[in-house]
From TrEMBL:
Cross-referenced InterPro entries: ABC3_permease_C (IPR003838), MacB_PCD (IPR025857), Macrolide_Exporter_MacB (IPR050250)
Name of this protein: FtsX-like permease family protein
Originating organism: Mucilaginibacter polytrichastri
GO cellular component, one term: plasma membrane
Ranges where the MacB-like periplasmic core domain occurs: 22-238, 538-644
Transmembrane helix keyword on record: yes
Every ABC3 transporter permease C-terminal domain range: 300-414, 687-796
Length: 807
């Protein structure tokens, strides 16, 4: 019996090969797109789930009452982690984690760049990075270092690394460590990642920072004992804050800070580590983070595309049901039962869906390399074999076959045998359902089109907005840790002296944007000034910083070699000047550092966006103190051939530092990298909108063909009575145009709300304009009209004699 169903189904599918081919193409494209998007969602949602203790691990953070809105920060003072573990028995493990710029590992004659993190011994007890070789009690010794397999291979080759000594150069000093353990390479879906792990006591200025509570430099993770209530534990941290951070609380109260909902002006909280990958609201979080909005957007787009494809399937099946009405009537007359016919039609649906599923997954595998390159994704087709993904595929397949197959089948079975044999079928109800589904389809496509246009506008705005400094003609070069930054800057200045087209050379501790090294540092300083706390970003720079970056002075002067005292002077931005009183602040002395003389303000420069445009400009203070190293060199050029200038700078770098890799990049590239997630989202929206419109048009084309076939006699009569081609085309197109307009009206408020919420994440953003909605509607109308008009014109130009004769 089942074999007969398949044979009959295959014969019927072949008879309707045009409509079925359209169905298969639409479904396979939708399945391929949704597969790639859903795999990305699965991968992003799988971050850190491999940790055995994930449900009990938390990141500690502060919420501080500040002007404007409470601020969250993950930066912690040195004594907090050991004190917290000692004071609270509910804390099973606690570890501090701090990163550093890539360090130089020296072993014999070999020197390689490696990533380093500083952590406490509990790090390997909390997180599931098992030691596969060496001492299982990792970091038990103060000079122990734990390597990953790849790092051990790069440093030692095939030799056994356990017990060997390596030198790790960071903060301009080499430090000797003994290899005590080897771990597997960190998984790609791990928020934490490094090549080397050493004891936290080896971090810069540890002896000083481990005793002070007013300097916050690193992240703290804790693992609570099982069955500990996180909310109650968090409530129990209030006495801890009052005991150890009393000075902070007093300063905040003095400065007029409003109490937080819990009653205090500063609160200590814990954030579930299982959500760490989506923890974007704490700027100091260590590890890879991504907005939930981005992942949610991918999921919604995948669902949109599948819904549009299912609607297509239903509409095409309903449209074809009119041509199969007589077949159904004959089969009913010959004794076919309701469930027999239902099984037959569902078998046809399953065959179509299976073909589309295989074709879609094959297409996904074909385009996956390009998808991974475009979206910096780490997905693979092997992920489909995991239980959750397999269950999702099976569930989606069943949903599509049921949702897209049963309604048309039940509709065909509802036809009365006497009516279908006479050739008269009531099409009013199917027509209403078809119209509703078409409205939903074009509504979703219009939403995606509007989102695409607004995202593209915002990205263009971010790329073209003046930042207050020259980003187009400045090369940023990371120095690394193998040489002293200040000495490297001076050597390179001497090498570049007299080179044509070079306008200025300077250096700084922090980069602008994100360079090829991927590093992004941030230093915030707080100090008491005239009875209140002043907080400012602090940036170590060298001479000619403002000149090289073309930053304009508002008052005073830049750092100058003519003034030896400038090593104890500062240059501040306008926001910082307003914070310390405004007006003429040049000559003011600021007590910025304890146990050091006050620093004099010698200049005020115009505000510039030293952070991404997600954030407003904040107070910034430039210093020339030796406490910070120079980590980046900036070279400003001016000529008609920027590529030639870049190559000349690279050649001079290799001549000056033959053993240091050149990883320079234009600042314009660095700033654009700050908006990678927005660019990826824009590309996805564009791709999804195109796919949604194509699938919708496939269905619209098939439906228009069917409508015209049903109205062949009417078209012939109208032509005989003198109707023009234009009037017939308008008659056939009018109904579909009305549906597209209804879809657009429904889409407008939804798209506006979604994009308005998204734009709130930017301090600098566009205003949503009315013409965006008009353009999106016009695009949908033009595409729909072109799709329908092709068939309408053919029908209108057909010989009416043939049309009436065929009837």
């Amino acid at each position: 019996m089942f074999k007969n169903y398949i044979k009959t189904a295959w014969r019927n599918l072949w008879k309707g090969k045009v409509f079925n081919s359209l169905n298969i193409v639409g479904l396979s494209v939708a399945i391929a797109s949704s597969t790639l998007l859903l795999l990305t969602v699965f991968f992003e949602s799988s971050y850190d789930t491999f940790h055995k203790n994930i449900d009990n691990i938390y990141q500690v953070y502060f919420t501080v009452s500040r002007p404007g809105a409470p601020q969250k920060t993950g930066s912690m003072p040195g004594p907090l982690a050991p004190t917290l573990k000692a004071d609270y028995p509910d804390v099973k493990y606690a570890t501090r984690v701090a990163g550093s710029p890539p360090a130089t590992v020296i072993y014999g004659d070999k020197q390689i760049q490696q990533d380093v993190i500083f952590a406490d011994p509990d790090y390997f007890n909390m997180f599931s990075f098992p030691i596969i070789k060496g001492n299982k009690k990792a970091l038990s010794g103060i000079n122990d270092v734990v390597l990953t397999q790849s790092s051990a291979k790069a440093i030692f080759g095939d030799a056994d690394p356990i017990g060997k000594t390596i030198a790790v150069k960071y903060d301009d000093q080499p430090h000797n460590f003994i290899v005590s353990g080897i771990t597997n390479d960190y998984p790609k879906n791990s928020s934490l990642g490094t090549d080397l792990t050493v004891r936290f006591e080896n971090s810069q200025d540890y002896k000083y920072l481990s005793k002070v509570w007013d300097s916050r430099t690193h992240i703290v993770y804790v693992q609570l004992n099982k069955n500990v209530n996180p909310a109650k534990f968090e409530q129990g941290l209030k006495p801890f804050v009052k005991k150890y951070l009393k000075q902070d609380l007093d300063d905040l109260k003095r400065d007029g800070a409003k109490p937080l909902p819990g009653g205090e002006r500063e609160a200590l909280g814990i954030y579930p580590y299982k959500d760490n990958h989506f923890n974007t609201d704490m700027g100091a979080v260590y590890g890879s983070t991504i907005s939930k909005t981005y992942v949610g957007g991918l999921l919604v787009i995948a669902i949109f595309i599948l819904i549009i494809a299912c609607i297509n399937f239903v509409n095409l099946s309903v449209a074809r049901s009119f041509t199969r009405a007589r077949e159904i009537g004959v089969r009913k007359t010959l004794g076919a039962g309701k469930w027999q016919l239902l099984t037959q039609f569902w078998t046809e649906t399953v065959i179509i869906c299976l073909i589309a599923l295989v074709a879609g997954i094959s297409l996904a595998a074909l385009v996956m390399p390009g998808f991974k390159a475009a979206f910096q994704s780490s997905i693979s087709m092997s992920m489909l074999l995991q239980p959750l993904q397999l269950f999702t595929i099976i569930g989606l397949f069943l949903f599509i076959t049921v949702a897209a197959g049963f309604y048309p089948a039940l509709l065909m079975l509802s036809y009365k045998t006497t009516q279908v044999l006479k050739g008269s079928v009531n099409t009013q109800k199917p027509g209403k359902v078809r119209n509703i589904l078409l409205v939903v389809q074009f509504c979703l496509a219009t939403i995606l089109t509007i989102c695409t246009l607004i995202t593209w506008q915002q990205i263009s705005y971010l790329q073209n907005k003046p930042l207050g400094y020259n980003k187009n003609e400045v090369i940023s070069i990371p120095i690394g840790n193998s040489v002293n930054g200040d000495q490297a800057l001076q050597l390179f200045r001497n090498q570049m002296a007299g080179q044509p087209g070079v306008i200025g050379i300077t250096g700084a501790y922090s980069n602008l944007g994100r360079g090829k090294d991927g590093s992004n540092s941030n230093s915030v300083l707080g100090f008491n000034y005239k009875g209140h706390e002043v907080r400012t970003h602090e940036q170590k720079v060298d001479y000619d910083y403002l000149k090289t970056l073309d930053i304009k002075l508002a008052a005073g002067r830049d750092f100058s070699r003519d003034f030896a005292s400038d090593t104890n002077s500062v240059v501040i931005n306008e926001k910082m000047a307003a914070l310390i009183g405004g007006g003429n602040v040049v000559g003011t002395f600021l007590p910025m550092h304890d146990n050091q003389p006050p620093m004099q303000v010698v200049g005020v420069f115009k505000d510039y966006n030293f952070k991404s445009l997600h954030e407003d400009v904040e107070p910034l203070t430039l210093v020339m103190q030796k406490d910070f190293p120079i980590s980046y060199i900036f070279v400003r050029v001016k000529s008609n051939n920027l590529l030639q200038d870049f190559n000349r700078v690279q050649e001079k770098w290799h001549a000056t530092f033959p053993n240091i890799e050149f990883t320079g990049s234009w600042l314009s590239e660095n700033t654009e990298k700050q908006y990678r997630s927005e660019k990826r989202l824009s590309t996805i929206f564009i791709s999804a909108a195109i796919i949604a419109i194509i699938i919708s048009c496939i269905g619209l084309l098939a439906i228009s063909i069917m409508v015209i076939v049903q109205r062949t006699k009417e078209i012939g009569i109208r032509k005989v009575l003198g109707s023009s081609v234009y009037s017939i085309v308008m008659l056939l197109s009018r109904e579909f145009v009305k549906l597209v307009l209804i879809a657009a009206i429904i889409a407008f408020p939804v798209a506006w709300w979604v994009m308005h919420k998204w734009l709130e994440g930017f301090a600098y953003r566009i205003t949503i304009q009315w013409w965006v909605f008009a353009v999106a509607t016009l695009i949908a109308l033009v595409i729909a009209l072109l799709t329908i008009s092709i068939q309408a014109v053919k029908a209108a130009l057909a010989n009416p004699v043939k049309s009436l004769k065929s009837e």
